[in-house]
Amino acid sequence: MNNRKTEEAWNYHNKTKHPGMPTHYLDWANQPIPFKIYTTLDPIEIPTDLPPSNVPALTAISNNVPITSDECIPDLRTLGRLLYLSAGITKKVNYPGGEIHFRAAACTGALYHIDLYIVTRDIEGLEAGVYHFGPHDFSLRTLRKGNFLGVIMSATGEESAITKAPITIITTSTFWRNSWKYQSRAFRHTFWDSGTILANLLAAASAYKIPAKIITGFVDSTINNLLGLDTNREVAVSLVPLGDTEKSIQAKSEEIETISYETMPLSKKEIDYPLIRSIHQASSLTSEEEVKEWRTGTPESTLPEISGRLFPLDYNQDKEIGQISKTLEETILKRGSTRQFAQTSITFKQLSNILYHSTSGIHADFLIPFGSTLNYMYLIVNDVEGIPKGAYFYHHNENALELLKEGDFRGDAGYLGLGQDIPGDASVDVFFLNDLNQVLEKFGNRGYRVAELEAGIIGGKLYLGAYGQGLGASGLTFFDDDVVRFFSPHAEGKSVMFLVALGKSVKSKSSR
């Protein structure tokens, strides 16, 4: 399929809107396991004795470590800390039906369909190779021996951040582990849930002063083949080069041997959702030339002129952050997804801190120049000390909220969030919207991937910014077209990508 035939993205987006998804009953006896477990490969233990960074969470989510002339080569201990803080098991909770292993980052339905793979040169504690990270036993398993970073170099069209990175982490999604509950909508969740993991990974890399960048332009078949994936079930989503070396990697475009290893069955049977495979194929890139052509600057936004009352953000300065923010490690270990909010207020300073530090920019190959964005944040403020209740638009370049309409919209917030109590009870609801026509015109069908992914990454930062200040957060689904209508005329013509509710938790149970 052709990435430029954008009717495929629109077909998927419109068919997976709420309302409109078919009635679905969960077959609990057929629920997939939340891990990819290789049954014939020996584990490589990852050390866990690296001291914590002690960097405040708000600092970690807002700082980006630039690539410099200095070498930065993480060792296995440091790599292990990044893996743990982004995708590790942080707590285990028993319930009548068994035990749930909660992870460092939020995931729709706590189904954990995102896996991490590592491609590395020789580093201290680990030989060059391709590895799978197993959260269930915090180990690596060797898929290939040798240095395959040159293959990634070729597959990304010689992307500059890849050229000197000694390690690249690759995220993948196994569709069935999420579509068991969410059906075809799981393709959206692929990027929401990758995004929350990447938010943690970027924050952890920042805390340990390791350069990192999100790469979404690559030849899909090359990366999938490198990892030995069955692409009817699991696909590569993004690449994250880590660190910096003096010597550039040399590209390698030669054929690589096909690999396949036995894995534990996910469930008794798997149900195929062709719409997922169709949009994935339609948004795939097939050659290095296509990748290079695809990687262009972010389209400039066109927004209505400011006509409502402006409320400049009131955020803490850098020297004050340590006094009001938990460390990144404390935040991630305590983070959950709030299942019940108290109908009470948060302060405007708390909200300002969350918004300001979460939107400081993402180093990504689809956000050029740095600081660009594809998504806009619309808010329903139910109860924030210092500003009126109402609907707002966040002008991130001006660091200010524009009041679109004043009023008590708790009932609307609850309805728009699929009729759930959570968004109605929250202090604030943050909706991510964009001009999907413009995004698809610029990036083709793959634009749908990156628009969802950026929303997921910023949403993940909202989580960390909230929990870092002792608040709660929860990612939610929504009635697509009704959200646009609610925020119109300002939001007219836009499409909804994601929703995050913020506030004070009544109790925290880590599921979403």
Explain what this protein looks like in three dimensions.
By secondary structure, the protein is α+β, with helices and mostly antiparallel strands. The chain folds into two domains: 7-294, 3-Layer(aba) Sandwich (NADH Oxidase); 310-507, NADH Oxidase (3-Layer(aba) Sandwich), CATH 3.40.109.10. Helices cover 33% and strands 20% of the residues. A seven-stranded antiparallel sheet has the order 9-15-14-12-16-18-17, with helices on both faces. A hairpin with a 4-residue loop joins strand 14 and strand 15. Helix 3 crosses helix 7 (186-207) and helix 7 packs across helix 17 (446-468). Residues 508-512 have low confidence and may be disordered.
Number of domains: 2
What is the CATH topology assignment of the largest domain? Answer: NADH Oxidase
What does the largest sheet look like? 7 strands, antiparallel
Radius of gyration: 21 Å
Looking at the overall shape, the CATH architecture of the largest domain is 3-Layer(aba) Sandwich
Oligomer classification: single chain
Globally, the shape reads globular
Overall structural class, as computed from helix and strand content, comes to alpha+beta
Number of helices: 18
The helix content, as a percent range, equals: 25-40%
